[in-house]
């Protein structure tokens, strides 16, 4: 097998494509022939030693991937060679093969393309957990999605619409706002040009959004939180903007609002049954055409550095997917 190896987590440039012995699965594990993998923001942080999870060195990055089961270890009865699956792993996807626990695999229904499956569980799982579980979204509420043209943002936009919400999509360019309108956003906000508070006041008749979905952080957080509706929920997804905001707690008091942390990775580990139910609903929505991953570009696995460069340059709309021939 071949894989991108991180043996010195100082950044993307240190990753090396290497030949490795093809591993055998241990008890409870399967060996997966990786067909496609997608790039997520945590995949950048983990090779910089900045992510919450710090795997032992060396490791193969790649948190979201899909492929075909090649071999199963002792005790694995729910999967067999030839099964098409998506992997919910924290590492291992950026290679030709991966060893993953059978409890972290999602069976793919007929018609679910590998490229879509590799861009699905992480972003759609995060957004479903955030909006439906943590945010307790109700039909008819208004959701502001920041970073709405990115991977988790496009997923959040579609999930909120599928749940019956009104969606305001916030993005950094007019081109990205246009994509969000194509995906079903009811209104858009270009926060690189518009005053966030004034725009949200106008778009919500002064009420503010019921839910703010924020994977960006940085300078956007405070004006968005100041605009939130009474009893609003501010969902903390991540900090793609680079800065971790420090919100004044008096704002939560004055708005009767909640600041809600969203850590999907630990949700998967701590509440596997709830996660399985969420993924089942998402798979059903996919089959119904209500959600569909936005693939910005599909690249050979060998072009991982290019994929990282596009993401760090904030050029990506949706997801970049890497494929093995």
UniProtKB/TrEMBL annotation:
Enoyl reductase (ER) domain mapped to chain residues: 11-322
Pfam families documented for this protein: ADH_N (PF08240), ADH_zinc_N (PF00107)
Ranges in a coiled coil: none
InterPro entries named among the record's database cross-references: ADH-like_C, ADH-like_N, ER, GroES-like_sf, NAD(P)-bd_dom_sf, Quin_OxRdtase/zeta-crystal_CS, Zn-ADH-like_protein
Protein name from the UniProt record: NADPH:quinone oxidoreductase family protein
Source species taxonomy: Bacteria, Pseudomonadati, Pseudomonadota, Betaproteobacteria, Burkholderiales
């Amino acid at each position: 097998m071949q894989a991108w190896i991180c043996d010195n987590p100082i950044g993307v440039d240190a990753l090396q494509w290497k030949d490795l012995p093809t591993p055998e699965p241990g008890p409870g594990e399967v060996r997966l022939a990786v067909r496609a993998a997608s790039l997520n923001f945590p995949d950048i942080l983990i090779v910089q030693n900045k992510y919450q999870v710090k795997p032992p060195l060396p490791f193969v990055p790649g948190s979201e991937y899909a492929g075909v089961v090649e071999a199963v270890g002792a005790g694995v009865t729910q999967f067999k060679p030839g099964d098409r699956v998506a992997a919910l792993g924290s590492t291992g996807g950026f290679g030709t093969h991966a060893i993953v626990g059978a409890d972290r695999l999602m069976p793919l229904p007929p018609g679910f393309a590998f490229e879509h499956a590799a861009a699905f569980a992480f972003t759609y799982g995060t957004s479903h957990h955030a909006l439906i579980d943590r945010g307790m979204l109700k039909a008819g509420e208004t959701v502001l999605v920041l970073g709405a043209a990115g991977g988790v943002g496009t997923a959040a936009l579609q999930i909120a619409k599928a749940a019956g919400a009104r969606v305001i999509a916030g993005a950094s360019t007019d081109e990205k706002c246009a994509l969000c309108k194509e995906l079903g956003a009811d209104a858009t906000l270009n926060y690189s040009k518009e005053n966030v508070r004034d725009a949200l006041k106008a778009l919500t008749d002064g009420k503010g959004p019921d839910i703010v979905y924020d994977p960006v952080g940085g300078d956007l957080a405070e004006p968005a939180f100041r605009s939130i509706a009474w009893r609003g929920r501010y969902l903390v997804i991540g900090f793609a903007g680079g800065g971790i905001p420090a919100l004044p707690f008096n704002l939560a008091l004055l708005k009767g609002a909640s600041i809600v942390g969203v850590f999907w990775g630990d949700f998967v580990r701590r509440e596997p049954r709830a996660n399985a139910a969420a993924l089942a609903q998402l798979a059903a929505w996919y089959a119904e055409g209500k959600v569909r991953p936005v693939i910005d570009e599909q690249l050979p696995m060998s072009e991982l550095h290019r994929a990282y460069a596009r993401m760090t340059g904030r050029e990506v709309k949706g997801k970049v997917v890497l494929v093995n021939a």
